[in-house]
């Protein structure tokens, strides 16, 4: 029983091993599972059987490897020997193939060409044969793709006939299908060629815009000149026209609108139009082709887009455009040329561009133009260049206005440029005024003869009955700068008027512009030049006196300037909105400044003389003569006040009073100087002599017009102080102090105390033996007593205050 089971187990294990060796590894799992399903110890015997089988296979593999090893080694060795020969053979084969291909390429190409030509020849013969059946009458050849692009429309019509009429009749043939497939390509080629022509046109128009714009602006200027001449003739009542209008040349939809009002030398010249300068046929042809092909919208969008790009290029100025008028002229010519072309396209085509599109372009361009002009004109300091720019802008605006474009903003810009123009004029005239003032001799104008006198009054409105009665030679009160200034103000008005012309403004507005600009000239430029002139150090008293006289006459001439402006503008001065010239206040201010400078310089001169004073403050006794410096000062004042005779009375009187007050104040300050410690009675006597000379000068009436001793009152403080010390009348002073009838009413106790203390110190040190003399002791005691009383008065005044 046990043996039978053992035999069965061995047999089963042998079967499992054979199955494992012969089947796929994916099926090994179920097979092995059967081993474990048998008797409990069967798997161990199976493992032993499996190990034995593996050892058996390993022995067989080893035997086979040993048997074939030497043959494998020999085969590898042979392969290595053959490899070099194989590589050499491969190179020879490759080279042979290449030479064979090169040798046969030309033959192959010619063969293919012959085949293709024979096929074409056969197809063409068949096509001609079949087409002759479709064409009635005499046979004719239709060649769409050969030479018909010069006549695009005819080619398109031919293709349309072929496509709709003839090809359907023979559509069963293959060549008809090829032809039908070729027609769309031909249409695209026609579109491309026509678009290429359009691009050439756009490039050409970019180059010719300058010439077109120049022609348009020249004709607009001639038209405006003609209109103004006609209006002038009409205002003069001339019934005869300047010339016949039968030769009028217009350029509305095909160019420029205007009258050929050229000079007589150019009267017979033919007026160039936009079509004379540019061939517009590429635009018409391309538009028509795209319309026929049903792609008009694409063409319109492309054209508008390209023109917008060109507009932006045209609007870009050169960086140095502001340096010359030619730069501005070229800029304007290009812009005008661009919009003349657009106006022509607008009217010559139906809907390629619309009025809305051109208006949009113009508004965009106008904003850019205004910004460019505003920027570049700000760099210009030459009024002549600004004026030429204004004239160009006016012609530019008139030209485009003739084509229906709105130009109001350009005229608004001109008002801004007008302000800048006035500023450049003011700067220019400031230099003119300075030069006039520098070259003036500040002396009355001498006239030797009647002719010279008439020459002066023809340049300046001067009328004086007394001077007219005087015999020749004689002198006019103003200096040479007065008529020159008056002439230059009129020249400024003319220059300002030049800018106001052609601005399409009323006479009242022009009158207002002229008056405002003239007011700026007077109140700012001329006034500033006068103020600077007055403050210059080299201008002396004589020159200041002449400046005051000059400003007086210029002030009187302001009414003649107003009449001058009125005659230019024909606007009555009684008009409500008429501005007045501010010259009166300008010259009054300059005169007041000159008067103040006279007072200042006069006081400075007095100070210079005072600095020459050299008093011996400890002198024992005066020599009885006034100081030399003071006599020189008085002589200077006399000669100076003689020059003041031409000044208005109040000015001379004010100057004289100011000088006397300043002299009295300076003398008082000299006497009370804190650095001055001692003053003797002899010095007081000498100082008194000098003050007497000042009083004599004041009483001699150096300037007429003072009432009584008004001028002497300038020295009253000094006089009462010196009298108090000369007479030594302290009892009266102290007794009457504070009384309105006091003899020494103008003497301040502090002033008297300061001077008395200087004399007290002198009395102490004057003589070491003075204390032994009774008179000197009594005087010293009196001084000390007076000093105490004066101090009490000063202290009382300070407490009261």
From TrEMBL:
Keywords: Exocytosis, Transport. Transmembrane segments: none annotated. GO terms for cellular component: exocyst; plasma membrane. Signal peptide: none annotated. InterPro entries: EXOC6/Sec15, EXOC6/Sec15_C, EXOC6/Sec15_C_dom1, EXOC6_Sec15_N, EXOC6PINT-1/Sec15/Tip20_C_dom2. Residues 49-217 form the Exocyst complex component EXOC6/Sec15 N-terminal domain. It comes from the Eukaryota. One of its GO terms (biological process) is Golgi to plasma membrane transport. Residues 410-758 form the Exocyst complex subunit EXOC6/Sec15 C-terminal domain. Component of the exocyst complex involved in the docking of exocytic vesicles with fusion sites on the plasma membrane. Belongs to the SEC15 family. This is Exocyst complex component. It comes from Astyanax mexicanus (Blind cave fish).
């Amino acid at each position: 029983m046990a043996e039978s089971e053992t035999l069965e187990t061995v047999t089963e294990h042998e079967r499992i091993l054979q199955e494992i060796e012969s089947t796929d590894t994916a099926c090994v799992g179920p097979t092995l599972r059967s081993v474990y399903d048998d008797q409990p110890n069967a798997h161990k015997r199976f493992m032993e059987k499996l190990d034995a089988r593996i050892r058996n296979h390993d022995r067989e593999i080893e035997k086979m490897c040993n048997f074939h090893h030497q043959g494998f080694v020999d085969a590898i060795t042979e392969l290595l020997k053959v490899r070099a020969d194989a590589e050499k053979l491969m190179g020879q084969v490759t080279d042979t193939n290449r030479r064979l291909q090169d040798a046969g390429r030309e033959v192959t190409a010619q063969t293919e060409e012959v085949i293709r030509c024979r096929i074409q020849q056969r197809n063409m013969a068949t096509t001609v044969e079949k087409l002759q059946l479709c064409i009635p009458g005499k046979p004719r050849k239709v060649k769409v793709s050969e030479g018909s692009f010069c006549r695009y429309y005819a080619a398109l019509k031919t293709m349309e006939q072929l496509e709709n009429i003839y090809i359907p009749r023979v559509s069963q043939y293959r060549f008809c299908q090829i032809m039908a497939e070729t027609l769309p390509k031909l249409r695209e080629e026609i579109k491309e060629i026509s678009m290429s022509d359009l691009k050439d046109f756009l490039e050409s128009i970019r180059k010719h815009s300058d010439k077109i714009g120049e022609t348009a602006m020249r004709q607009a200027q001639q038209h405006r000149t003609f209109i103004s001449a006609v209006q002038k003739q009409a205002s003069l009542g001339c019934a005869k026209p300047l010339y016949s209008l039968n030769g009028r040349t217009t350029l509305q939809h095909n160019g420029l609108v205007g009258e050929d009002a050229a000079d007589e030398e150019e009267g017979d010249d033919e007026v160039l139009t936009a079509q004379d300068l540019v061939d517009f046929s590429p635009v018409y042809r391309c538009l028509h082709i795209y319309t026929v092909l049903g792609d008009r919208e694409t063409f319109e969008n492309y054209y508008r887009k390209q023109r917008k790009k060109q507009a932006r290029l045209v609007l870009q100025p050169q960086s140095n455009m502001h340096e010359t008028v030619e730069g501005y002229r070229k800029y304007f010519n290009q812009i005008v040329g661009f919009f003349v072309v657009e106006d022509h396209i607008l009217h010559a085509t139906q809907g390629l561009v619309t009025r809305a599109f051109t208006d949009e372009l113009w508004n965009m361009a106008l904003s850019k133009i205004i910004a460019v002009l505003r920027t570049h004109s700000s760099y210009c300091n030459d009024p002549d260049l600004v004026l030429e720019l204004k004239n160009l802008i006016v012609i530019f605006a008139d030209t485009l206005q003739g084509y229906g474009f709105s130009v109001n903003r350009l005229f608004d810009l001109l008002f801004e440029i007008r302000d800048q123009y006035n500023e450049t004029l003011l700067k220019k005239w400031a230099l003119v005024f300075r030069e006039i003032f520098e070259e003036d001799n500040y002396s009355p104008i001498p006239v030797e003869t009647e002719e010279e006198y008439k020459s002066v009054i023809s340049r300046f409105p001067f009328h004086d009955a007394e001077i007219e009665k005087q015999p020749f030679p004689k002198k006019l009160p103003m200096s040479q700068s007065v008529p020159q200034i008056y002439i230059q103000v009129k020249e400024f008005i003319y220059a300002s008027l030049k800018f106001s012309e052609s601005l399409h403004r009323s006479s009242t507005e022009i009158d207002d512009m002229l008056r405002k600009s003239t007011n700026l000239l007077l109140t700012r430029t001329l006034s500033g030049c006068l103020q600077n002139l007055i403050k210059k150090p080299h201008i002396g008293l004589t020159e200041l006196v002449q400046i005051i006289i000059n400003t007086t006459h210029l002030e009187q001439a302001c009414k003649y300037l107003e009449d001058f402006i009125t005659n230019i503008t024909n606007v009555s001065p009684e008009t409500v909105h008429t501005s007045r010239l501010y010259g009166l206040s300008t010259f009054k201010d300059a005169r007041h400044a000159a008067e103040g400078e006279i007072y200042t310089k006069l006081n400075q001169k007095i100070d210079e003389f005072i600095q020459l004073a050299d008093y011996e403050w400890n002198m024992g006794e005066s020599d009885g003569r006034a100081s030399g410096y003071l006599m020189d000062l008085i002589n200077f004042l006399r000669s100076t006040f003689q020059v003041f005779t031409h000044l208005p009375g109040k000015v001379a009187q004010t100057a004289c009073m100011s000088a006397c007050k300043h002299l009295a104040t300076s003398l008082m300050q000299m006497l009370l100087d804190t650095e001055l410690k001692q003053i003797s009675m002899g010095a007081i006597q000498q100082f008194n002599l000098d003050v007497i000379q000042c009083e004599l000068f004041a009483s001699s009436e150096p300037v007429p017009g003072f009432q009584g001793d008004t001028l002497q009152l300038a020295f009253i403080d000094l006089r009462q102080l010196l009298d108090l010390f000369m007479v030594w009348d302290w009892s009266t002073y102290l007794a009457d102090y504070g009384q309105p009838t006091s003899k020494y009413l103008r003497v301040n106790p502090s002033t008297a105390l300061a001077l008395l203390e200087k004399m007290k110190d002198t009395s102490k040190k004057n003589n070491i033996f003075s204390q032994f003399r009774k008179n000197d002791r009594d005087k010293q005691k009196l001084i000390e007593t007076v000093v105490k009383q004066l101090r009490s008065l000063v202290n009382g005044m300070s407490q009261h205050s």
